[in-house]
Structures are given as C-alpha cells and as structure tokens.
Design a protein that fits this description.
By secondary structure, this protein is an alpha+beta fold. The protein is built from 23 helices and ten strands. The protein is 57% helix and 9% strand. It binds adenosine-5'-triphosphate and magnesium ion.
Length: 440
C-alpha cells in the first residue's frame, strides 16, 4: 500500500459521520422539489448512491425554502447521462450534469476527492490555490472539499437520514459559520470563500467562528487574483440575495468591498459619514425591499447606484472642463466604468444601462423642453428611481422629483399624442414608399 493510500485509509477510519435518522430531523420530502426527488430516486433505483447536498439541505434545516437543489452521487458523469434524457454535461475542469425540468435545473455532481487526501501537492499551484479538482471519490472524500460545515450536510435518499461528518448540524444550532479544515489554507486555495462567508453570515445572521473570521482581513488581498468574471457572478449573489445592505456593511468591515468597488470605497473612506454613506444605504435597502417583494432588480441599475457616489464627484470634475452637463456626465460615466471593469467584468448591456441611467440624470434637469422624449426613454423609470434615491439621501432635488412625478401621471396623454403623431408620420412614410414601389 502506498503512503497516499495509507493516509487515505487512516483519514477515513478517523472520522465516523454522525447519522441523524429521519425521526430526528425536520427535512421532509415535501420540501424537496419534484424534479430533485425524481433525480434522487432514479439514481437510487439504478443502485447508485444519491444525496441532496449543500445549500438546499442547509436552507431546509434553517426553515428557509431552498432556491435550488444540488445532488451528489457516486455515478460518474457519463453514467448519469445514460440515466437521464434531459441531461447535459458541463464544465471542463470538473464535469457536472445539468438535468433540466422545464425552467428548473438540478445540478448533479460526482463525489470528488479533496486534495488533502488525494495528494498533498497535486492540484495546487505553488501559492496554494487549487488548479485541479477533478479526482473522483466517495462521500467521505467529497465532504472535505466543501467550504463551510453548514454546507456539507448530506440528505440520503436511501433512508432519509442526514449525514454529518463535520459538525454542521451543531453549527446550525449554534448559528455559527465555520470553515472545514485549516481556514488559512482554505482561503488561500480559493479566496472567493471569503466572499461566500460574508454572504452566508449576512443572509442567515450567523456568527463567524474566530478561526474562520481572523484570516479574512489578512488574506483579503488574494481577491485580486480572482478572474473578474467570477467576481462579477459573486457580486450578483452578494447584492441580489435580499440582504444587500447587511452584506455591504460586512464586506466593508472585513476590507473586502474595495476589491469589488474600489472607486466607491475610496469615496466612502474619504468621507467618514454623510451623503455617500446615506445614499448607498438607501439604495441597497431599496434593492432589498424589491427582492423581498418579488420584484426584479436589474444589475445595470444596481451598478448605477453602487457607483453613484464616485460618479457624482467625477461629473463635477468634468463639468469644469466641458460645456454641457450631459457631456460631462457621459465622460464621467466612461471614466468610472472603464476603471470599474478592471475589478469585476460586467456584461456590456449592463454598463450601457448604467451609463444611460446616469446620462438621464442630466436630462432630467432640463424640465422646460422635450420632457416626453425623456419620459419615453426605456430607462426613464430607472433614472427616476435613482433621482428619488438622490433626493432621499440629501441632494436638493425635491422640486425636480415633484415635477417628474407629475409628468409621469400625465404621461399617457403626452405619450399617446406624440406616439400618434409619430405613427402618422411613419404611416405616411410607408405609404409614400409603397406608392413609390408601385410606381416602379
Ligand atoms: P446558495 O444558496 O447560494 O446556492 P450554496 O451553499 O448552495 O448556496 P452553491 O454555490 O450552490 O452554494 O454551491 C453548492 C455547494 O458546493 C456548497 O454548499 C458547498 O458545499 C460547495 N461549494 C460551493 N462553492 C465552493 C467553494 N468555493 N469551495 C468549497 N465548496 C464550495
Ligand atoms: Mg446552491
């Protein structure tokens, strides 16, 4: 037996899981989506192991409706595909199966071995980050590669028990977030775990275990090494989960916000209190309210608000050099966005939207002419919402808010008459074209 195999055996022997039987926990199949149950049962009937894992188990135990369901099994991706017609294998580094049921996707992964036991160096870069994570294993390998104890609970479809290797149940009861393994190593392996920690403590109102908490400030700089596209995905999860304001407070507390929005952080640090703080608080609380009421929050609008404080300063800087407010706003928008995308990459449609919302702030000031054009702008409503937030946070804009609030009420008449005029013009153009065609 090689040293590696021996280590593996020892580590397996050392940890016996706690099995919480069906009568001793609250997870019932009623709380699991039909699609997830179908997947679990089909795997089980084909004699594979199948567990519900991760966020869904955690959420149900916390009394929260899960937003999606992840399944883990000992079936390998190709074997999973053989069982499900509606299955697509994704991922290059590690293949996962996505099983589609209408709009719902059940993600099924094969047990993976953690590098702590697969090989001490293999799969890690010299600085400790994970570069490969693609060795199949069993449940007692897979559990150690997961991030937090509360995310490492497995619900076994075979006997409806919950399998807990890491004290996750106890941590849930204590309301505690704790990394599995050596926290320093785990943050170095994947610095995004720091952002995930903030997301979970904010969303579930958890305390952080001191050993999980202490290294965060020390290692926050590692976020600079994360691809900007991944940071964008994480940023959305952080700010669109209904707890954006709490999350933002914690991100700042642990020096992490600066890696997502450095320009905003700079303004906030330069002004210990006052407008920028007030504005971002109102904006994020407003976002949280929308999410709680089931309304959509557009990432473009979110960006326009999070970046508003530095944007406002940048507009002032440009205003002294160029003639019009609109021009200054456009130039400032370009400058802010081009700096921002070096931290997190943002799809172009959303940076365009943020720019439009900002430019409309300048156009909203011009109340004397062409209001209908502003009202008809596809981003008018978002621009108006930003204007409200600005007024609410202390900018002297109440008259403007009143004006645009009234204008909107009149919008149908103004809009319709203008639309009619346009339609008439279009029709007459079309008629002329058609008659020209006939002439030909
Ligand atoms: P959410 O409610 O946001 O979906 P989640 O815990 O389900 O929370 P996912 O990103 O869906 O998060 O990941 C599913 C599971 O995969 C996690 O619960 C965790 O066990 C594991 N996991 C995800 N990301 C990491 C990571 N960066 N490091 C280690 N394990 C991870
Ligand atoms: Mg999940």
């Amino acid at each position: 037996m090689t040293e590696l195999e021996e280590n593996k055996k020892i580590s397996r022997l050392k940890v016996a899981p706690k099995i919480i039987s069906r009568s001793d926990h609250i997870i019932s199949r009623m709380q699991i989506s039909d699609s997830a149950l179908k997947v679990l049962y089909r795997l089980k009937n084909a004699k594979y192991k199948a567990y519900l894992v991760g966020g869904a188990v955690r959420d149900i135990l916390l009394g929260i409706k899960p937003k999606d369901f992840d399944v883990v099994t000992d079936a390998e991706p190709e074997q999973i595909r053989e069982l499900f017609r509606n299955c697509r294998l994704i991922g290059r580094r590690f293949r996962l199966a996505h099983i589609q049921f209408g709009k719902e996707i059940i993600e099924v992964s094969t047990f993976r071995a953690s590098h702590h036991i697969s090989d001490s160096n293999e799969g890690h870069e010299r600085d400790g980050r994970i570069i490969r994570d693609n060795v199949y294993g069993d449940i007692d390998d897979d559990v150690w590669r997961r991030d937090f104890t509360i995310n490492a609970l497995f619900y076994n479809i075979n006997d409806f028990s919950v399998v807990d290797y890491v004290g996750g149940i106890e941590d849930l009861e204590l309301g505690q977030l704790r990394l599995i393994g050596d926290p320093k190593k785990r943050y170095v392996e994947d610095p995004v775990r720091m952002l995930r920690a903030i997301r979970f403590i904010s969303k579930f109102d958890l305390n952080v275990h001191p050993l999980t908490e202490n290294p965060i400030i020390q290692f926050s700089y590692l976020l600079e090494t994360i691809p900007t596209a991944r940071l964008y995905e994480e940023m959305l999860k952080l700010f669109l989960n209904g707890f954006a304001f709490k999350t933002y407070i914690s991100l700042r507390k642990y020096d992490l916000f600066i890696y997502l929005f450095p320009q905003t952080e700079q303004v906030l640090t330069q002004n210990k209190k006052g407008y920028p703080h007030e504005f971002i608080k109102n904006a994020l609380k407003n976002t949280d309210q929308r999410v709680k009421h089931g309304k959509s929050v557009n990432p473009g609008f979110l960006l326009a608000t999070i970046l508003w404080a530095p944007m406002r300063i940048m507009i002032e800087e440009y205003s002294s050099n160029v003639h019009s407010d609109i021009e200054a706003t456009k130039l400032a928008g370009d400058a802010i966005i081009s700096k921002q995308i070096s931290s997190i990459s943002i799809p172009r449609r959303f940076t365009h939207m943020a720019r439009d919302i900002w430019t409309l702030q300048a156009r909203l000031k011009q109340t004397k002419r062409k209001s209908y054009r502003v009202l008809m702008h596809p981003r008018f409503r978002a621009a108006y919402d930003l204007l409200l937030l600005r007024a609410q946070s202390g900018e002297p804009l109440n008259d403007l808010v009143e004006y645009w609030t009234k204008e909107q009420l009149q919008e149908p008449q103004i809009g319709k008459s203008k639309i009619k005029t346009r339609q008439k013009r279009n029709n007459s153009n079309r008629n002329t074209k058609n008659s020209k065609k006939k002439d030909l």
